Structures are given as C-alpha cells and as structure tokens.
C-alpha cells in the first residue's frame, strides 16, 4: 500500500470567527509581513519548521542537495525557512545525515545553501543544536549529558550511557553555539534558531528528570535554565542586535494542564514528570525579556513523543492544530512573536490561528515536503483545499508496528532527497521502499530510534 496525497474543498465554518460572507479573495493574514523585535521584517507568516533532511555527506558537510531543496522551498513562497538540525560538534550527532558546523571548513557550500534559501525574499535560519545523550550508539559511543544516566525504557539499548559534563565542557559547548551562529551569519543565513526542545541537550538541562546536578546548572529552575540563557547571551553577542535569534522550546516534555506561574519558585512547585508547562511559561517570559526574536513552540521527547503513529491525515483529524491550549495561556503575556507548529493543513485553520492572536507565525513542515509551493497556492491562487498527508505503510502490520516512527521519518527523508536531486515528491512511494532507502543511505543505524520530526 502506498501513500496518497489528496485535497478537499473547504467551507469557512462559523466556528472560525471569520464571517460566512467574508471576501476570501482579499489578502489573507498569512500573507502579511511581520517585523521582529530585532527590527528585521519577514515577508509573510509561513514558517517552514525544521526537519532533518539527512542530506549531509560523510564528513557532516552540506551538499548540493541542500541547495536544490531549499531553492525549491524558497520559490514556494514561505517567509522563513528553518533548516534541519545543524550540530555544533561533529563528534556529537543526533541523527544520521546531520550537518555539523564547528569551523569554516565548509563555508563555500554553506554560502550556496544560504543563497538558495534566501531567494525570492525568503529568510533562511539555521537551527543549531547539540544532542547530548540523545545520540544513537550506532553513530556515537561517547555521548555527554548534564548528568550520567542512559535513556529509560525500550529505547535505552540504542544509546550509550553518557558522561556527565564538567563545567569547562559546558562552557565549551556554549562557545560552540556562538561560533556556529557566527559562521551561519557569515555564510549568509539570515537568522538562527536555538533548539531547546525534543529531548536534546538544552532540554536535558531544563528537565529535572535528566538534570541531577548540584552546581549552578542544576537543582532549581533558575539553575536548570542557566545553560539556555547563557547560550542565548553568547549567540546574541556573536551575531549582534540586528540578527534574528529564535528559540524552539517544549511546551512541556509531557503536556499537562497547569496554572500560570508568577515566579521561578512557584514554577518549581510541580510533580516530577520532566520540564512542564509551568516551567516552560516562566522560561519563555525570561527569553522574551532577553530579547529573543521568536519562540517556536513544540513538545515531547524521544522517550515521550507527542505522537507515535504513521496514519497521516487520520492522525491530523484526531489532533488538529498542536499546542493551541498552551499558546493561549501565553498569548498577550509577552511581546515576542510565537510560531505555533503542527497540524496546519489548510488556509482556514491558518487564518483562524492568526486572527485569534494565538500565534504570529504558521509553522508547517511535512505539507511543504509533499506540496512545496503551498504558501504561494494559498496566498496567490487563493487555494482553499486541505493537505491530507499519507498513511505510511509497508503493507505488513508487523513491520509497521516495529518501525512506525522511523517509517514516517524515512518516507519524508526520501521525498526531500528526491527534491534535492531535482525531482518532484512522489506520494506513490510506499513505506517498504522508504525503509530500504534509509538503510542504503545510512546503514543499519538508520533503524535506531530517532526523535520524530515529521509531525508538523
């Protein structure tokens, strides 16, 4: 059974808040520009969220496929294109095929990538990251983390026990984030996004389940957030005041309904369960006060992913737009723009989210793989359809169950690889072919658990 992309005409329901007799041919809100706190203006509200392209060569360098892929997305009309994970240390990778930037050895190709991603007035921001302990043993037998202790549960066997970071090592990683951001700017990327979500290193520092330190980087929320705040300060010092700096952060590691905290002490009053919504709200307010230009809201970790199925449109219909309840809690409490990512599949949902003020940027990822020109379709062709993502299946229930999340990742990586080779996405490709593609590209390590990136 193969994947299938379909569209459906969409009426404007009364529940959207848009009048039934509204002139849908007028300029949509998603086409409006947005000026960031640093003074930079992006041309519209489409925010292509990060996905691991898995296109780096064996030396962790970007390739011509990155250039073609981002040129195609830039031509599709999005205001901001965020790259997949770019690691700040080439010895510490989160997934097969990661790009790593720790010096200027690949500056020429980085410049080509940035130039392609900024065509047609688009912004192209480099997402910078460190995996911490979330680095599969097939590519890293010596991971690091805030504290020692391997991943729990069924995934634990795929990851080596990490070494606890010393203070000098923590300071070196902070320097690396700043260095990578500076190289991104020099190469022509127009912003950076610091990845503090999804169970990677910064998220590990934030989580009381992962961070058992007793020094100034552990214990209270203020201390656990210190690593993130020092990275933001170091990056800002490196790139200057007029360069966009965004942060991707979990609404929580395990979403729950909580009250809005009034202080760091109150945010610390929680039941154990990882970094939670109370704590996230407090950290986001601090980031806003520090002058961060955009907050990209996400959620979940490798051990506790937001979703785990491969059912495509069926999954979308069950979930709708992700993290809206959390976004509503912080709407109006900060001046920093919010990017809400996950579940946007048609213009009606996008306009509703923008008109309500729950978000200022529409974060999308998977729909731009199967329909790279979606922003232009909505803004220029006034397309009122719905992107229906495929149900990715091998046709064998046992394989689907064993490799559900990896199956989805591999399918979308295959499609991005096609675009990177100058071809078009092909929804007829099935899940088994996607798994075989991943093994050919990355070896058996491709089947190790990876953070699910494809839910947006």
Can you tell me about this structure?
There is one protein chain. This protein starts with 33 loop residues before the first strand and ends in a 14-residue tail after the last helix. It is globular, with a radius of gyration of 20 Å. The protein has a single domain, classed as TIM Barrel (Alpha-Beta Barrel), CATH 3.20.20.70. The strands form 3 sheets. Strands 3-4-6-9-10-11-12-13 form an 8-stranded parallel beta barrel, surrounded by 5 helices. Strands 1-2 form a two-stranded antiparallel sheet. Helix 1 (64-75) runs parallel beside helix 2 (107-117), helix 1 (64-75) crosses helix 14 and helix 2 crosses helix 3 (167-187). The protein has 456 residues and is an alpha/beta fold. Helices cover 34% and strands 12% of the residues.
What is the strand and helix layout of this fold?
Layout (H helix, E strand, L loop, with lengths): L33 E2 L5 E2 L3 E3 L15 H12 L4 E8 L11 E2 L6 H11 L5 E7 L14 E2 L17 E2 L2 H21 L3 E6 L4 H6 L14 H4 L1 H14 L5 E6 L13 H5 L8 H13 L4 E5 L14 H7 L4 H7 L7 E4 L5 H10 L4 E4 L1 H5 L3 H6 L17 H24 L10 H12 L14
Parallel strand pairs: 3-4, 3-13, 4-5, 4-6, 6-9, 7-8, 9-10, 10-11, 11-12, 12-13
Antiparallel strand pairs: 1-2
Helix pairs in contact: 1-2, 1-14, 2-3, 3-6, 14-15
Keywords: Flavoprotein, Oxidoreductase
InterPro entries: Aldolase_TIM (IPR013785), NADH_flavin_oxidoreductase (IPR051799), OxRdtase_FMN_N (IPR001155)
Protein name: NADH:flavin oxidoreductase
């Amino acid at each position: 059974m193969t994947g299938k992309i379909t569209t459906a005409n969409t009426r404007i329901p009364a529940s959207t808040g848009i009048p039934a007799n509204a002139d849908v041919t007028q300029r949509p809100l998603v086409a409006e520009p947005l000026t960031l706190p640093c003074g930079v203006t992006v041309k519209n509200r489409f925010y292509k969220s990060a996905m691991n392209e898995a296109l780096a060569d064996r030396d962790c360098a970007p390739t011509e496929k990155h250039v073609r892929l981002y040129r195609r997305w830039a031509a599709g009309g999005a205001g901001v294109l965020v790259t997949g994970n770019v690691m700040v240390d080439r010895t510490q990778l989160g997934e097969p095929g990661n790009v790593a930037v720790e010096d200027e050895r690949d500056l020429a190709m980085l410049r080509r990538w940035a130039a392609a991603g900024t065509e047609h007035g688009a912004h192209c921001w480099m997402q910078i990251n460190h995996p911490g302990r979330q680095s599969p043993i097939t590519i890293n037998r010596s991971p690091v983390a805030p504290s020692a202790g391997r991943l729990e549960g069924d995934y634990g066997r795929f990851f080596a026990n990490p070494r606890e970071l010393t203070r000098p090592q923590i300071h070196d990683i902070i320097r690396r984030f700043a260095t990578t951001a500076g190289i991104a700017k020099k190469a022509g990327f127009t912003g950076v996004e610091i990845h503090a979500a999804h169970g990677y290193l910064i998220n590990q520092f934030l989580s009381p389940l992962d961070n058992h330190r007793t020094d100034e980087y552990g214990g209270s929320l203020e201390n656990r957030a210190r690593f993130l705040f020092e990275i933001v300060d170091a990056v800002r010092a490196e790139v200057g005041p007029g360069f966009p700096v965004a942060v991707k952060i979990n609404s929580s590691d395990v979403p729950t309904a909580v009250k809005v905290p009034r202080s760091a002490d109150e945010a610390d009053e929680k039941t154990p369960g990882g970094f939670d919504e109370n704590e996230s709200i407090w950290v986001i307010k601090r980031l806003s006060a520090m002058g961060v230009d955009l907050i990209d809201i996400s959620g979940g970790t490798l051990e506790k992913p937001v979703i785990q199925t491969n059912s495509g449109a069926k999954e979308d219909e069950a979930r709708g737009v992700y993290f809206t309840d959390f976004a509503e809690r912080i709407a109006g409490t900060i001046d920093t723009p919010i990017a809400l990512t996950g579940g946007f599949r048609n213009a009606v949902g996008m306009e509703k989210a923008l008109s309500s003020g729950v978000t200022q940027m529409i974060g999308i990822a998977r729909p731009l793989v199967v329909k790279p020109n979606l922003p232009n379709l909505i803004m220029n062709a006034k397309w009122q359809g719905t992107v229906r993502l495929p149900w990715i299946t091998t046709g064998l229930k046992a394989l689907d169950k064993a490799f559900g999340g990896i199956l989805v990742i591999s399918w979308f990586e295959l499609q991005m690889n096609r675009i990177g080779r100058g071809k078009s996405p092909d929804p007829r490709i099935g899940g088994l072919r996607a798994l075989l593609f991943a093994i050919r590209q990355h070896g058996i390590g491709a089947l190790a658990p990876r953070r699910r990136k494809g839910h947006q």
